[in-house]
Amino acid sequence: MLSNMIRRTAVALILCGLFTVRAFAQTVPPFDASGLVNLGDSVKYGSYIIYKIGEGIYKINDPGDKTTRLGGLGVDMYLIRGANKAFMVDLGNNYIDGFAFDLIKPRKNAAEELRAVEHGLAGDLPLEIGITHAHPDHAGMTGAFVNQKNVTFWMGEHEGEMPPGMQISFGKNLPAMPHNPIDLSVYKRMASGKQFDLGDGRVLTGILLRGHTQGSTVYLLTPDMYLFTGDALGSGFGQGYSTVPVLKEFAEDSQKLADYITEHFKPYERYSLKVYTGHTWQNTADGFLHPNHDQVDVGYLDWRFIQNEASCANGILKGKWLVEGSGLINVGKQPSSAGWPGANQEVIMTYGIGTIIIPLQTAYDAAGLKMPSQ
Fold this sequence. Notes:
Blueprint: H1 2-25, E1 42-45, E2 48-54, E3 57-62, E4 75-81, E5 86-89, H2 110-122, E6 127-130, H3 136-139, E7 151-156, E8 187-190, E9 195-199, E10 202-208, E11 217-222, E12 226-230, E13 239-240, H4 244-264, H5 267-271, E14 274-277, H6 303-317, E15 329-332, E16 346-351, E17 354-359, H7 360-366
């Protein structure tokens, strides 16, 4: 009788264990991508909205939460499916651990939820993940894919890109971030120009573009002509630079990117380029960075944006805002610059749809000019 009781107890424990495993494996339902048929179709799943932006190309949007701040106000990830492998650009905010600095709280089943989206879009294809830069709103969900089979992580090789434990400071008016619990040691470092062959001729090329961070990387998808830029070119209509060295880095690398595209692609290919940033909601935010920008229905930017950003940066270095008819305009202080560190000192420079927010003194210093006394 005792042996029978032991056997029954053992069976019960095994069944209980099986039930636990199955329950854990089914904490979130599978992601159903069948609703993503036509370009622009979207499906909501958990806390994400997934958009079809191309054949086998998807935007995974985290709408954010207005109770959070900075990166918590909405961020975009992208997944490209090839014949042989899939590639994911950026990993959004950290909802596994939360991030107190941005007032982001942990979410239940956050890792499983994002993995379900990736699997629903890419199936069992090997997955490469490349972040545009190592800020916590672009690498936050790294933990969801650590220790998963057939996953490889990549980031820019520049030594200035944030290593594990490095703090990020948003300027004098904001404190440095506390260490974010993201293990960046899983990332391999890649040189500018590294190519990822996804199969059937679909190739993604990582290109260094310093400025927002020293290791920022943009990803050019060919032959489809999509460019995924994170924050490297700014989100919506521009970026802010507070020092002369950083402005010079951005001016140099943005011009190199424009030259690369001009040299490698025919006009009709360049004109078809679609530029997807890391925070596309800012494209349509009235006056967010561009003072004359009304709300428009646009999900992506284009070839003009790259050229205009490069011209804006290089024009500042030449003092062109002081030259009538140059195309570079100093529109001064605007309410839309108020969210930037040191906004009381900063002005907005525009060239076409390209925008740079910069302290006026820094602009004069960059051009080697003496700033007039006020």
